[in-house]
Design goal:
Blueprint (H helix, E strand, L loop, with lengths): L7 E4 L14 H12 L3 E4 L5 H11 L5 E3 L4 E3 L5 E4 L4 H11 L5 E5 L4 E5 L6 H4 L5 E5 L13 E5 L1 H12 L6 E8 L4 E8 L4 H12 L6 E4 L6 H6 L2 E5 L4 H6 L2 E3 L7 H12 L1
Parallel strand pairs: 1-2, 1-12, 7-8, 12-13, 13-14
Antiparallel strand pairs: 3-4, 4-5, 6-7, 6-9, 9-11, 10-11
């Protein structure tokens, strides 16, 4: 009975609640309503920017505080901000210095719902829209970017991305984490540089404190590497079968089916029936 004792359900979006169309399905909308009618809080925990997160929350009629930008930004739909973590000027300048001689592009999300990217990444515009609906290309270097962002995304071919990760990892940057991963299916890789306080689990912890809910009374759903810490902290964790192997190995339950056929909403509906 996965929902027994659960007071909050945290849902990742891409690959978990959303199919590849990125559209909320009728089943997902209905199940979120059913969860709330049963007295459970429901939140979103996503790497997407605030504009996308707000839009999906409104469509799903979710009223709990939301976890956006990989946990760096937590806010309610009424504008109340509970958490706002961003890269310092000193860290951005240090990263720029360490990578200045490498063939790398960069992008960063902003507080006001934009994504700023260097001109060399124009071919990835469609992919960048997954983070934020508004993408702005600029001609200047990373050092000259002056916006507040929860992370810096350095984009390069695989061998260059490995060198970026090696340099940054060996530079002794204080209180910094690196997230080195392919930008599928483009053939490009990203090295995400972010303060150590950024992560979905940190954002979710903020929501739990605000709602006075324990981690043990939380059910979290996700499918990818950036969900692992959140899934580990939750009392119950769920993933669809399309989740990466590392996630499937960690969760309490693997929901039959994939995000394309509403695996997680259907699992939650069945769990509700068992209450």
């Amino acid at each position: 009975m996965p929902l027994r004792g659960v007071r909050l359900v945290a849902l990742d979006l891409d690959g978990t609640l959303l199919p590849s169309s990125k559209r909320v399905t009728d089943t997902a909308r209905e199940v979120v309503a059913e969860l709330r009618e049963a007295g459970l809080h429901v939140t979103l925990a996503t790497g997407k920017g605030w504009a996308h997160t707000q839009r999906y929350a409104r469509e799903l009629e979710i009223d709990a505080p939301l976890v956006a930008l990989e946990g760096a930004y937590v806010a309610a739909l009424d504008g109340t901000v509970l958490r706002d973590v961003h890269v310092s000027v000193a860290l951005r300048e240090r990263v720029a210095d360490l990578t200045a001689d490498l063939a790398t592009g960069w992008f960063a999300t902003t507080r006001d719902g934009r994504l700023v990217a260097c001109d060399s990444l124009r071919e990835l515009e469609r992919l960048l829209h997954l983070w934020e609906p508004r993408v702005e290309f600029v001609g200047h270097a990373l050092r000259e970017y002056d916006g507040a962002s929860p992370a810096l995304h350095l984009v390069a071919r695989e061998d260059v991305a490995e060198e970026i990760a090696r340099r940054l990892g060996g530079a002794g940057l204080p209180d910094v984490t690196l997230f080195h991963t392919p930008l599928t299916p483009t053939g490009w890789w990203q090295v995400q540089v972010r303060p150590a306080q950024v992560g979905k689990h940190h954002g979710l912890a903020c929501v739990l404190e605000h709602l006075d809910v324990s981690a043990e009374a939380t059910l979290a759903c996700g499918d990818w590497l950036n969900d692992l810490e959140m899934l580990r902290m939750a009392g119950v964790s769920v993933a669809p079968t399309n989740a990466v192997a590392e996630v499937r190995a960690e969760v309490s339950h693997v929901a039959p089916g994939t995000c394309e056929d509403d695996a997680v909403p259907r699992f939650l509906r069945a769990a509700l029936a068992d209450l």
